[in-house]
Amino acid sequence: MQNRRQLLNGFERTANAMSIMLRGMAATDAASATELANVREKLDEFVQWTKDG
After folding, report:
1. Is the pTM of the predicted complex or chain greater than 0.90?
2. 47 and 12 in contact (C-beta within 8 Å)?
3. In Å, what is the CA distance from 26 to each residue of 2, 15, 49?
4. Which residues contact 23 (CB under 8 A, 6 or more apart)?
5. Residues 6 or more apart whose Cβ sits within 8 Å of residue 46
6. Which of 1, 12, 37, 45 is most open to solvent, judged by the fewest CB atoms within 10 Å of its CB?
7. Each residue of 27-53: b (16+ CB within 10 Å) or e?
8. How do residues 2-52 score in pLDDT, each as one tens digit?
9. 52: Cβ–Cβ under 8 A, 6 or more apart, which residues?
10. Between the CA of residue 6 and those of 11, 43, 53, what are the distances in Å?
């Protein structure tokens, strides 16, 4: 795929913006804190996937 790197770069930028948003969020209870941590972890994995190409 010719545009793979360009697409991955776009995904990375979007994921980084989402990460900034998630860092600004605070959980209201223990269950929410666990879920928020899980979402942040999955997003970090996605960012790494885009960098690995």
Report:
1. no
2. yes
3. 40, 19, 26
4. 40
5. 11, 15
6. 1
7. eeeeeeeeeeeeeeeebeebbeebeee
8. 899 999 999 999 999 999 999 999 999 999 999 999 999 999 999 999 999
9. none
10. 9, 19, 10
The token duo for 52 is: 């690995």
Q: How long is the chain?
A: 53
DSSP states of 9-52: HHHHHHHHHHHHHHHT---SSHHHHHHHHHHHHHHHHHHHHHHH
Contact between 7 and 21 (Cβ < 8 Å): no
